Amino acid sequence: MRTPSTECPVVLVLPAHDEEAAVGAVVARVPARAAGHPVRCLVIDDGSTDRTAARARAAGARVVSLGRNQGLGAAVRRGLAEAVDSGAAAIAFCDADGEYAPEELERLVAPILAGDADYVVGSRFTGSIQHMLPHRRLGNRVLTLALRRLTRAPITDGQSGYRALSPEAAAQAQIIHDFNYAQVLTLDLLARGARYHEVPISYRFRETGRSFVRLHRYLVAVMPAVRRQLATDVAPLRRRPLRARWSPPHTATGRHGPAGAVTSGSGTECSSSYRSTSSWAGVRPDASMPSSGSSRRS
Ligand SMILES: Nc1nc2c(ncn2[C@@H]2O[C@H](COP(=O)(O)OP(=O)(O)OP(=O)(O)O)[C@@H](O)[C@H]2O)c(=O)[nH]1
Ligand SMILES: [Mg+2]
Fold first, then answer.
1. From ligand 1's centre to the CA of 129, what distance in Å?
2. Mutate-to-test residue for ligand 1 from 55, 93, 95, highest number of ligand atoms within 8 A of CB
3. Shortest-distance ligand to the CA of residue 143
4. Tell me: the pLDDT tens digits for 96-125?
5. Does the 10-256 domain belong in CATH 3.40.50.2300?
6. Cα dist. 125→101, 103, 136, 138, 155 in Å?
7. Tens-digit pLDDT profile for residues 145-173
8. What is the dihedral of CA 176, 63, 160, 20, to 10 degrees?
9. Domain ranges across the chain
10. Which of 94, 136, 192, 242 is the most exposed place for a label (fewest CB within 10 A)?
């Protein structure tokens, strides 16, 4: 098992598209440390035509620009790959529009750093919601119910924009379309045997910028991607005993051992060699697990 040194950073990725009004303040709110680790903020500038990149840099973030606008799924995919390459001890991501609280970062990454989870989702519905449009609330409920049915996992917020992954999970995760990650990332990671965990988070609807969510376009892009995800070689969800992987922190024992479902390199240095060395316990050896940086597109 790999024990990340407390010198290895926690990386918070902020995918951003035309968020000049909010991104600087979000970066400034990122805590300097989380669970004893230094925190690095990485903004993925997804083809912004405003001053998003400059504002993020001025506030102290590292900025990676995608050049042209590629979509939220592509931006998160790139962010995960960059964070893995930088030797992160844990990787989180959230919106750059101020809807999620960077101050709550430790809550997200603590179960990963403790070795109790591979994939942590911040749940707005077990936390607090300051304002959410009624049709959004309904849409979230319906899509979450569908995801629960598909995975048989106790998911309470399938569309959350605040999540954290172990570096091993981030290296192996596949986001199979560029438009979005919400459902396909969860389906992919659970099918790979990731130990899923939720933590309550706070949420407030964006006050600036422009949302990319338009119901029709969203459904037209997301539904076929979910169908494709369910047909991939890591998706025999209905046949896998996933329940065994939802043990709450500190009781997660069993065949994965108490400190992680992932086997990877040993040692305490900040390593970025997850792609070549890691594998999920429980995943078929023939299952292909390309890196998160691969561009498998819709
Ligand atoms: N609009 C848009 N946002 C993107 C894109 N790529 C990355 N993002 C960023 O992805 C994050 C999530 O997008 P949002 O539009 O906030 O999606 P959402 O939170 O589901 O919708 P709202 O609740 O209306 O904010 C934000 O930080 C965006 O700036 C893109 O292609 N379009
Ligand atoms: Mg948002």
1. 18
2. 95
3. 1
4. 999 999 999 999 999 999 999 999 999 999
5. no
6. 15, 18, 13, 12, 10
7. 999 999 999 999 999 999 999 999 999 99
8. -120
9. 10-256
10. 136
